[in-house]
From TrEMBL:
PANTHER family associated with the record: BETAINE ALDEHYDE DEHYDROGENASE, BETAINE ALDEHYDE DEHYDROGENASE-RELATED
Record domain Aldehyde dehydrogenase: where: 22-479
Signal peptide, first to last residue: none
RNA-binding listed as a keyword: no
One MF term in the entry's GO annotations: oxidoreductase activity, acting on the aldehyde or oxo group of donors, NAD or NADP as acceptor
One Pfam entry name: Aldedh
SUPFAM superfamilies: ALDH-like (SSF53720)
InterPro entries: Ald_DH/histidinol_DH (IPR016161), Ald_DH_C (IPR016163), Ald_DH_CS_CYS (IPR016160), Ald_DH_N (IPR016162), Aldehyde_DH_dom (IPR015590)
Taxonomic classification: Bacteria, Pseudomonadati, Pseudomonadota, Gammaproteobacteria, Pseudomonadales
Family, as annotated: Belongs to the aldehyde dehydrogenase family.
Organism per entry: Pseudomonas khorasanensis
Name under which the protein is recorded: Aldehyde dehydrogenase family protein
Length: 483
């Protein structure tokens, strides 16, 4: 366990740490104990952070990609050197097992290194000639940083969602005001301490901890912010977009999901059960990409459900620091009650509980929940249609490939999907028919910084990661000259 000072500064503005007036209580979800208090900011702190970022932008926007890449590599190395501490912080504040938190930290390192490489490649592309259908004119293309950007992130993968925005924003030459989740600010505070030692000029990166209303809302509204990149719930995403609209700022949104795992008739059942558990119970199901709808071919349905029940009941729910833990705690009381409410409403709607649904008997304290599986879930119930964001799977059988695809696509969301089949042609055909931004075929939910993240419909606006994540923070300028 890590010991914390009683209070932590919640503001890092213009290269200086300070405290705001808002006392944010930071809880360990596995014990319900207070870890520390973070002194977060308000509209005034947001104003100061944006002013610092605007001032820093004058020089930072003129740096070369190579200079920015070198600093991103320093940040990646700082995270690597602090890997163990960051892993423990993430588990303490979020409730996820240490092995999952370590995956988060490695993802952060890989993301900063990837965008360092892209930043280093920018200089050679700058001012490239653009072919025109005329000898009277010539043109060159510039990609310039879009300005000072606001980054707002949630609590489920705090450091990761931050890195996916922060690394490309810095690579592009933007200056940043970051608002972490008030529920899980600790890893971002540590990341800020690493960035403070990375050689990044003061004011380029600013952090303002605080609540959505005190910090997120003024950040989204401020006319000096060129772009808001937001990850979180749909309800808040819509509010952010509305505020941003008033000053026509760019918006990227990564929102909710209701994704499916499709188990086709020729699937390897054992693999399908493993992928169902990974897609439903990793991070205690608190994933926008949770494949919480499991669609199984009629021929396999009984055997699959039996094996899934056995596997789900065997999952070791425990303290995140327990060496044998497989699933940790949910993030806080509000989320715990929300998921229990969904389970109750599912039962009232007539869904059949296969296993789970309660607190594990051996864990009287902490926000722990048994891995939960439902079947016979009505198609119009909240359990089937809404994002649960907890360790809850809904299993349903289908009689044809077309029915499976229709069931998977019947959602306001379209983030990801997984398909299990032994037939490569079928896998590709089904992947092409699914309305989702990322489809895994016989694979766990692996994520690479090189591949895009984001979805169709109400799951996303834009894409993160890959070159698309960088372009999201760039303006395009053409310069046309007459000869
Ligand atoms: P949330 O929407 O409650 O909060 C997200 C962030 O927005 C927090 O920092 C919060 O303080 C801030 N915020 C709250 N009100 C605000 C306002 N009025 N203006 C500006 N900012 C405000 O989401 P959460 O509960 O922290 O996270 C869970 C949600 O995030 C889920 O819906 C999940 O699907 C989504 N999510 C999506 C992705 C993705 O990549 N698509 C990834 C992770 C999480």
């Amino acid at each position: 366990m890590i010991s914390f000072p009683t209070t932590l500064h919640g503001l890092y503005i213009n290269g200086q740490w300070s405290s705001g007036r808002d006392h944010l209580r930071v809880i360990n979800p596995a014990t319900e104990a207070l870890l520390t208090t973070v002194n977060g900011g308000d509209e005034q702190a947001v104003d100061q952070a944006i002013s610092a970022a605007c001032e820093a932008f004058k020089d930072w926007s003129k740096t070369t990609g190579a200079e920015r890449g070198a600093i991103l590599r320093n940040i990646a190395n700082g995270v690597r050197n602090g890997r163990d501490h960051l892993t423990r912080l993430q588990s303490s504040n979020n409730g996820k097992p240490l092995f999952e938190a370590a995956i988060d930290v490695d993802d952060v390192i890989a993301t900063f290194e990837y965008y360092a490489e892209l930043a280093e490649g920018l200089d050679a592309q700058q001012d490239r000639a653009v072919a025109l259908p005329s000898d009277d004119f010539s043109a060159r293309l510039r990609r310039e940083p879009c300005g000072v950007v606001g980054l707002i992130v949630p609590w489920n993968f705090p450091m990761v969602t931050t890195a996916w925005k922060l690394a490309p924003a810095l690579a592009a030459g933007c200056c940043v005001v970051l608002k972490p989740s008030e529920v899980t600010p600790l890893s971002e505070l540590e990341l800020a301490a690493i960035i403070a030692e990375s050689g990044l000029p003061k004011g380029v990166f600013n952090l303002v901890c605080g609540t959505g209303l005190a910090v997120g809302a003024p950040l989204a509204a401020d006319p000096r912010i060129a772009k808001i990149s937001f990850t979180g719930s749909n309800a808040v995403g819509v509010q952010v977009m509305q505020r941003a609209a008033e000053t026509v700022k760019g918006v990227s949104l990564e929102l909710g999901g209701k994704s499916s795992l499709l188990v086709l008739e020729d699937a390897d059942i054992e693999l399908a059960v493993e992928l169902a558990c990974g897609g439903g119970f990793f991070n205690a199901g608190q994933m926008c990409s949770a494949t919480s709808r499991v669609l199984v071919a009629d021929e396999l349905a009984d055997e699959f459900l039996e094996r899934l029940q056995k596997r789900a009941q065997a999952i070791r729910v425990a303290d995140p620091f327990d060496p044998d833990v497989e699933m940790g705690a949910l993030v806080n009381q509000a989320q715990y009650q929300r998921v229990l409410g969904h389970i109750d409403r599912g039962l009232s709607a007539g869904a059949k509980l296969v296993c789970g649904g309660n607190r594990p008997a051996h864990l009287p304290r902490g926000y722990f929940l048994q891995p939960t599986v439902f079947t016979q879930v009505p198609l119009d119930s909240a359990l089937w249609c809404e994002e649960i964001f907890g360790p809850v799977l809904c299993v349903r059988s289908f009689s044809s490939e077309a029915e499976a695809i229709a069931l998977a696509n019947d959602s306001q969301f379209g983030l990801v999907a997984s398909v299990v089949t032994r037939n490569a042609e079928t896998a590709d055909r089904v992947a092409n028919a699914l309305h989702a931004g990322l489809v895994w075929l016989n694979a766990p939910q692996v994520i690479f910084p090189q591949a895009a993240w984001g979805g169709y419909k109400q799951s996303s606006l834009g894409r993160e990661l890959g070159p698309w994540g960088l372009q999201a923070f760039q303006e395009i300028k053409h310069v046309i000259r007459a000869h």
